[in-house]
Amino acid sequence: MPKRGRLTVTHNGRIGYETARAKELLTEYFGAPKPTSSVPEKLLRWLKSRERLAPERASSTPMLLSVAQPKKRLLVWLLSNLERHSLLLEEVKRGAHHARKPPDSAEFMGLSRRELDVLSWVAEGKTNAEIGFLLGLSPRTVQKHLEHIFQKLGVETRTAAAKRFLSSNLHPESSRR
Q1: Per the structure, how many domains does the chain have?
Q2: φ, ψ at 164 (rounded to 5°)
Q3: What confidence tens digit (pLDDT) does each residue in 107-117 have?
Q4: Structure confidence at residue 49 (pLDDT)
Q5: pTM of the full predicted structure?
Q6: CB atoms within 10 A of CB 177
Q7: Coil/strand/helix, residue 39
Q8: Which of 102, 35, 91, 101 is nearest to 66 (CA)?
Q9: How far is it, in rounded angstroms, from Cα 111 to Cα 117?
């Protein structure tokens, strides 16, 4: 099983949300972390170059950075939006990156299947009680799922979460935009 981590990064390089595994992988492949909670300089330069290269692709097309070590490689999958970048870090055996297909947006966002169900109903304008009824959950359980969704997406409101969902390639209408 490959090591995986997730993080969100603002456009100026500040880390918002970071899993313990992401922190570990960043240290292993890029060196000791900066005390300012910023991404390593090499990664920040790559993010900036992606912004300049294809800003129109940034919200829907995964982009990949590969960092090699003697027997393994770190794959950094990028999915951006207007406020911040979402990164999925994955360590694989050297040479395996050629066969690896990009993860889907749910994997980028780090959402479970149930969280994705809740988020899709939020994007439809449903209340916690309505979502609970539709999914067979209590409104409190829906709220807990939303708290996890907000943290994973690096947002603070239902509206911001819905906006992220609607602009992702998880939403059926997004492929027509």
Answers
A1: 2
A2: -60, -45
A3: 556 788 788 88
A4: 82
A5: 0.58
A6: 10
A7: coil
A8: 91
A9: 10
